[in-house]
Amino acid sequence: MLGLDTLARVAGELRRDVAAAHDRDPAARGVSSVEILAAWPGVQALLAHRVAHVLQQVGVPFAPRMLALASRAVTNIEIHPGAEIGDGLFIDHGTGVVIGETAEVGDNVTMYQGVTLGGTGFATGKRHPTVEDNVTIGSGAKLLGPIRIGHGAKIGANSVVIHDVPPNSTVVGNPGHPVRVDGRKPDGPDADWVHLPDPVADAISGLANRLNELEELVAEQTGRKPSAEARPLQRRGGPDSAGG
To answer: For the whole model, what pTM was predicted?
Structure first.
């Protein structure tokens, strides 16, 4: 039943959502909580979801889905009323974020625009991802099916993840696969997407190096110089892209 305890719980969740925006969005530094509530679509979508989720839990018909629909129209973020959302979720920018009905999101998770926690096929029951605490999910990443994303994992931008992800790992690619598992707890959300490992570039670099070695070996055997030089790939650097 709805009551003062329920309203107090929703208010506490809202305070933690606003605090997450203050902590993890550089654009929110020095901004009042009232302004964040009025102008941050990620916080607005979470407020609407938490109310809709409570209404669905107590069996109120029609209203939860209508509230979710109105929230999507205003924020361009779609969260099904049945989704379980933990404390301190921060949705940065948020445009195009979709969180399905049976998705479960832990505490202190960070998502960027275009993230999908989606299902596969038409099966009923648990069909959306479970995201554990302190996970960071990059822009455009798609997490599909009843998979589990381990504590502290980092999902690279535009990755498509269809298998479980180990804790404290970094996942990139399509299909997504871990490229780094360091076994250490990350110190907060890491948004430095520029410097993620690039397994495709690493593989091409390895092939280029092998080709250069083979041409040198052929040149030694035949006395002819290689007609072209295989230049090793240079990893392109860039500015630290952390933050919104």
So the answer is: 0.75
